[in-house]
Amino acid sequence: MAIAGALKAMAAPAWRKLFTRRMSSSFFDPPPPVRSRRVVVTGLGMVTPLGCGVETTWKRLIEGDCGIRALTPQDLKMNGFDPETQSYTYDQLTSKVAAIVPCGTNPGEFNEDLWFNSKEHRSMARFIGYALCAAEEALKDANWMPTEHDQRERTGVSVGGGTGSISDILDAAQLICEKRIRRLSPFFIPRILINMASGHISMKYGFQGPNHAAVTACATGAHSLGDATRMIQFGDSDVMVAGGTESSIDALSIAGFCRSRALTTKYNSSPQESSRPFDCGRDGFVIGEGSGILVLEELEHAKNRGAKIYAEIRGYGMSGDAHHITQPHADGRGAILAMTSAFKQSGIHPKQVDYVNAHATSTPLGDAIEANAIKHIFSDHATSGALALSSTKGAIGHLLGAAGAVEAIFSVLAIHRGIAPLTLNLSKPDPVFNDAFMPLTASKEMPIRAALSNSFGFGGTNASLLFSSAP
Predict the structure, then answer these.
(1) Of the residues 218, 223, 381, 416, which is catalytic?
(2) Which residues lie below 8 Å from residue 183, measured CB to CB, with a gap of 6+?
(3) Closest among 203, 108, 207 to 152, alpha carbons compared
(4) CA 85 distance to own-chain centroid
(5) Closest-CA residue to 391 (of 436, 360, 437)
(6) Cα separation of 44 and 221, whole Å?
(7) Torsion of CA 121, 127, 130, 136, to 10 degrees
(8) Collapsed DSSP state (helix, strand, coil) of residue 107
(9) Which of 271, 272, 275 minimizes the C-alpha distance to 262?
(10) Any idea where the domains of the chain sit in the sequence?
């Protein structure tokens, strides 16, 4: 009562000031400042249409080989359907080329028996198996197989995908149509969930740090790497196994992209010429599959254990087109914003970049818009001929959710090996280019201090990753 009386006796502004002062003194102190930590790449792993493994893929890429071939009815994964339905579906597809991972037991081939054909693998769809295979290579390359509990707690996983296992969804829908729903596998849901790639990797190696999965269409791999970088920078982990994975070579996925008129249709009789980034003859992308996984690590952590360092991640830029579900805006503003953001946080000037791995998928609209955006960002550095530029999708097609991670690895290897990879099938460059500003048509040995990798996805989602040589 005495307090109430005292407050009544005070003027309203006075007691409010007193109340605010007393309340503010009981609030929490501000959070401690976040000290950004430097992040480096210490391990690489890949499964691609050029082969299984980093060395196999890189060698074939640099030599100008192509991993694209003719699509067959067997590739459509319709074993549960009658032959007539399989044949009809295949005939109706307007695009009959694909970039498919070579499988077998020979060196450089993906061994399906190791990843899919045992009882313990029943819960794994193909995209998960690809991620596990690439992750194993990356972890061995990084020499990071921690057994101590605290080390496992400080190691996380960030692996995303674009579509998951559409073939499993098609098979499940058939069971409903045939009134055989009781035959549905109890592993159906775990096989189709995007985050199960990260989940299986974390379970296999006991990693208890962040367990994350981005799903941003064709920018997924880049966003997964960028998000993992931020987790290390902010102290959530010391090591991250990060990248993207995809397996969309199936009837429904290909039919869907055909109906959206995104895939190439002019080169069904000449598959290896079908993916033509920046070329006047391009008419759509080639659907591909595979996985790219990197081991990212805090710099001092890597140095203290004597790890091999390939490169440093210096910038991660993101943006949205806010324009159209599949088409970028003609002014390329989304791409420009993503690249600009990556440079702002990097401490690197565009003139210091030696190589750009473009997103360019071989679509008529997207390639030209990105080329103009690159010209805008790099200005006279690009038009002088000092900037090496290529799209590696001519060799591997478009790996959708895995593309950004695989192409990030190509950018890292370009820095580490001093070779900028070529663009296949560039016989008549788009008019946006001139003599000095021109994508590479042959792999080029050159010192590469910094490289930029672009990834853009449906829905107008954009990501740019900027790498520099090892500190």
Answers:
(1) 218
(2) 175
(3) 207
(4) 34
(5) 360
(6) 14
(7) -70
(8) coil
(9) 275
(10) 40-469
Q: Would you say 265 and 284 are in contact if contact means Cβ atoms under 8 Å apart?
A: yes
Tokens standing for residue 397: 């097609």
Residue type, 375: K
How far is the C-alpha of 445 from the C-alpha of 300, rounded, in Å?
Answer: 31
Name 444's bridge partners. 420
Whether this prediction's pTM lies above 0.85 is answered by: yes
Bridge partners of residue 390, in order along the sequence: 357
Biggest distance spanned by C-alpha atoms of the chain: 94
Both tokens of 167, joined, read 């073939």
Q: Comparing C-alpha atoms, which of 444, 458, 204 is closest to residue 328?
A: 458
Q: How far apart are the first and last CA of the chain?
A: 68
Closest CA to 459 of 376, 375, 401: 401
Active site annotation includes 218: yes
Model pLDDT, residue 470: 95
Is-contact 363 95, C-beta < 8 A?
Answer: no
From the candidates 121, 359, 381, 416, give the one annotated as an active-site residue: 359
Tokens representing residue 115 in the block = 């990843």
Percent of the chain topping pLDDT 90: 90
Task: Give per-residue pLDDT as tens, 238-296.
Answer: 999 999 999 999 999 999 999 999 999 999 999 999 999 999 999 999 999 999 999 99
Token pair for 102: 């070579």
Q: What number does CATH give the domain 40-469?
A: 3.40.47.10
Task: Quote the tokens at residue 1.
Answer: 């009562």
Sign for the CA dihedral angle at 113, 118, 122, 128 comes to negative
Are the beta carbons of 339 and 373 closer than 8 angstroms? yes
Helix (H) or strand (E) holding 169: helix 166-177
